[in-house]
Amino acid sequence: MTQDQGLRPQDFPRSPGVIFDLDGTLADTLNDITASVNHALAAVGRPPRPRDVIRPMIGEGVRVLLARAAERDDPQLIDRMLPVYRAHYHAHALDQTRLYPGIDEVLNVLVAGGCPLAVLSNKPHDFTVEICRVLLAPWPFVAIDGHREGDARKPDPAAAIALAQRMARRHEVFFVGDSGIDVRTALAAGMTPIGVTWGFRSLDEIQAAGAQLIAHAPSDLPRLILGATIL
């Protein structure tokens, strides 16, 4: 599978920790999110939005997503939409959601290289855990964290710092994500951001946020993190 199938943890005595964003980084969740957003919009009499319009709205939590999709900054409207969205997404979150092609090979190389792995998402925690339970079961993630009500969301660095401590990698962590939010989270937490360009946000956004390492395909990640190459 890889040029570095023989990698062992002892080959990298201080293998870095790696924190991944979920939506637009590990998994293509766009179709299922779009379907649930449009279901919630219909419930309050708002018109549907195309997937490419919804794409850049994702990443700052579900209330922000629904407000942007409805084009209404109305807390009462969002309160009506939220349970409709949650019920639909709970039933359909994995209808079309899949890991991006090549992510499985990346995770194999990182695990072989001794890297502790974690997920940090602004998606609600229960949805994050369920999607990761299904899609990431073959790999030993230290933690899967989504957003819990009352906690600060990315780009607040607190959750990322807590994950680094759990990985015993306080200052040796790469944060991989597709948005400026992920880049700013990494920098605020003292981590090295890697921006990815296959997700929901633009290259301009992640570079403007301060990402100097860019992955244009999943196969770029092992090289940037460990110097390993996927064939």
- Element order, helices and strands? EEHHHHEHEHEHEHEHEH
Helical stretch count?
A: 10
Q: In whole angstroms, how far apart are the ends?
A: 7 Å
Structural class comes to alpha/beta
Question: What is the averaged pLDDT score?
Answer: 93
Radius of gyration: 18 Å
Low-pLDDT runs: 1-5
Dominant shape: globular
- Please outline the major beta sheet: 6 strands, parallel
Number of strands: 8
Strand content: 15-25%
Strand order of the largest sheet: 5-4-1-6-7-8
Helical percent range?
A: 40-55%
Provide an overview of this structure.
The protein is an alpha/beta fold and 231 residues long. It has ten helices and eight strands. The chain has a six-stranded parallel beta sheet, sandwiched between helices. It has a two-stranded antiparallel ribbon with strand order 2-3. Residues 1-5 have low confidence and may be disordered.
Write the layout of secondary structure elements.
Layout: E1 17-20, E2 27-28, H1 30-43, H2 51-54, H3 62-70, H4 75-92, E3 98-99, H5 103-112, E4 117-124, H6 125-135, E5 141-147, H7 158-166, E6 173-177, H8 180-188, E7 192-196, H9 203-208, E8 213-215, H10 221-226
Helix pairs in contact: 1-3, 1-4, 3-4
Question: Quick summary of this structure?
Answer:
With 231 residues, this protein is an alpha/beta fold. 42% of the residues lie in helices and 16% in strands. It contains ten helices and eight strands.
